Amino acid sequence: MPAACDSMLEDIEDIVSADDVKPHNRQFLRRNVFPKVRKRNSQKNTQTDDDPPSDSIIPGAQKIWIRTWGCSHNNSDGEYMAGQLAAYGYKITDDSAEADLWLLNSCTVKNPAEDHFRNSIKKAQEGKKKVVVAGCVPQAQPRQDYLKGLSIIGVQQIDRVVEVVEETIKGHSVRLLGQKKDNGKRLGGARLDLPKIRKNPLIEIISINTGCLNACTYCKTKHARGDLASYPIEELVDRAKQSFQEGVCEIWLTSEDTGAYGRDIGTDLPTLLWKLVEAIPEGAMLRLGMTNPPYILEHLEEMAKILNHPRVYAFLHIPVQSASDSVLMDMKREYCVADFKVVVDFLKEK
Fold first, then answer.
1. Which domain does 146 fall in, by range?
2. pLDDT tens digits along 104-151
3. Are 116 and 221 found together in one domain?
4. Fewer CB within 10 Å, N- or C-terminus of the chain?
C-alpha cells in the first residue's frame, strides 16, 4: 500500500479542500474573537465621586476675596494680609463669586458694620465658600454662635494669615487670638515690614500703636485691641522710608489713639512726628489720625508747629462725643467740655 506522501502534488492548493476556511474568512473570524481579561480587584480601582482627601489640595493656588470694615487701622491690617497671601501665591480677587475663600476683616465700633460682617459669613456659607474671619469682632467675642467652627486671625496675629488660610482650605479650623509679647512686655502687633497690597497705591497707612489708655464704658474695641502698645520710632521711620521708595506720596498715621503714642515706651507723639517729617521727601505729605483730647493737651505748642509744616496736612481728628460734662463722665472719657474747647481753639488760632 503506497504511503500517502508517495502521490505527486501538482499544486499546493491541492491539499486544501473546498470545505476549508478561506484566508479572507479566517481574517473576518479573527475580528470577532475577544481576548479574555483577567478580573481585577474592583475595590482597589473604583473611583469615588467624593471630594479628594483634604491633604491633596495644594494651598497657594486658590482665589481669595478680602472684605474689610472699619477704621484706617483695620484697612492697614487688611492690606498687610492681602500682601502676604499674594506673596505666597494666592490670587487676590475682586469677584467674591469666583473666590474659593472669603477673608472677612471685621469692625466692632458700630452695630451696622458688625451686622454686615455677620451677614457676609452667612452668605459665604450658603455659597459653600471657605471662611476666615479677622478684626475686632472675633478678637473681642470669639465665642459668638455665628463664629463657631470658623478660623480666626487675631488682631495681633495678621502675620500668620498664610498658615491660617492654608489650614482652612484643607478643611481645618484654626484660631490664633494670642497677644505678641517680648520678655513679658506687650508688643504693638505684627511687624511693619510685611508685604502689602494697598487699596490706594499712593497712600501708606501706618499704625503707630495698638490699643489705648482709656476704658470708655461703651467701647468694645478696647476688648479687642487691649492696652496701649507702641511701635519704636525707628521702625516707624523705616516703614515710612520704605513706602516712599515704593512710590507712595502720602502717609497716614493711625491707631486707636495717636495722641497716646509712646507713653508706654518713654517717648511721645511730637518726637515721632519730627522724626517722620525729616524722612518725608519733597512733594509727599503726612496726615495724622484721631487723638483724644487728654493726650494732646500737653503737646499743643509742638503740635501747632508740626501742623504748620509744609509737608504735614493742617488736619486733626478730635472726637467731641458729647457737649455734656456729666455724660462725658458717665462715658469715662477722662476730659470735659472745657478741655475740648482749649484744644480746638488753640490749634485753630495757630
1. 62-180
2. 999 988 888 899 999 999 999 999 999 999 999 999 899 999 999 999
3. no
4. N
